[in-house]
Design a protein that fits this description.
- The protein is built from twelve helices and ten strands.
- It is an alpha/beta fold.
- The protein folds into two domains: about 40-230, P-loop containing nucleotide triphosphate hydrolases (Rossmann fold); about 245-295.
Length: about 300
């Protein structure tokens, strides 16, 4: 009769542990592993990232208001010419999205075959990406899609979605009053590429491209001049500036000036002396938006 000893018990325990593992060891010499496909891209952002965009990548495009972030994302989508889904979390509406794509050089055929969704949660947007089978997705913008405290978890889920679907996700992100990406370092850590878009119609002397990260081309990182010719569509910037001030498209100069004065009074720091820090920060960000809107609408002249 054989009796199990301590060594046999230890082996059984080790086998049980292996059966319950949720991880596994993988070989670095895996012949089945293929690098993600690189798509040639001559759009300004593509050029800054070495002339290509990577399928299945999460790309964070950040910058101040009216710098042309969304226009640059549209330029990438139009240049690639692949199946696009536009997630309109800013609730601009079909007319504005069509105008942005047209300004980026999209044909009427491309625009007609490119669906959009708006007034959706992140979970609903993810379902739309999977249902449409999109190859390129523009999320405009992260701040309007989810609350700031949900950025970290949402970006991780976006990375998983990009990896599983093979879609290129272009996420438009706002900056805070200190010129940093909203959400702290999370977007910088989680993005496969992170590029800052500075300058634009509010700064006709141009600005800068700031490539903070590019996993498929690390040599692209750095800061380079961004001429005004690359700084997005002026008409779209003026429409966004009017939206910030809740102005109709046909508002005259006097109405614009009144709207700016009223908005500045409402967001003035003196009104928030005793407010909690988060509300002060929101008011400061709002004041920056108003100042940039005034510049775009040429009220500083």
């Amino acid at each position: 009769m054989l009796v199990a000893g301590p060594a046999d018990d230890a082996r059984d325990d080790a086998n049980d542990d292996e059966d319950q593992r949720t991880w596994r060891l993988e070989s670095l010499d895996d012949d089945d592993a293929r690098p993600a496909e690189l798509w040639p891209c001559a759009a300004p952002i593509g050029a800054q990232l070495g002339g290509s965009m990577r399928a299945g990548a999460l790309v964070i495009i950040h910058g101040p208001s009216f710098s042309g972030k969304t226009s640059e994302a549209c330029a990438v989508a139009v240049e690639l010419g692949r199946k696009l889904l536009y997630v309109d979390a800013e609730n601009q509406g079909p007319a504005d999205v069509r105008a942005r794509l047209a300004a980026a050089g999209a044909s009427s055929r491309f625009i007609k075959k490119s669906p959009m969704v708006r007034d959706v949660s992140w979970e609903e947007a993810r379902e739309a990406v999977e249902e449409v089978g999109a190859e390129v997705v523009i999320f405009d913008s992260l701040s309007r899609l989810v609350a700031e405290h949900e950025f970290a978890s949402t970006l991780l889920e976006m990375r998983a979605l990009a990896a599983s679907s093979g879609a290129l996700l272009l996420v438009v992100a706002h900056e805070n009053e200190r010129g940093r990406v909203r959400g702290g370092q999370g977007p910088v850590y989680d993005g496969d590429a992170v590029i800052g878009v500075h300058g634009g119609p509010a700064n006709r002397d141009g600005g800068a491209w700031i490539v903070r990260k590019c996993r498929w081309n690390p040599g692209a990182c750095g800061t380079r001049p961004r001429p005004f010719s690359d700084a997005g569509d002026v008409g779209a910037a003026e429409a966004s500036a009017r939206a910030v001030l809740s102005l109709a498209a046909d508002a005259n100069a006097a109405a614009v000036k009144r709207a700016v004065r009223g908005a500045m009074v409402e967001a003035h720091p003196d009104k928030f002396d005793t407010a909690p820090p988060w509300l002060k920060a929101a008011a400061s960000a709002r004041m920056l938006e108003i100042v940039r809107a005034r510049r775009v609408l040429k009220l500083d002249d």
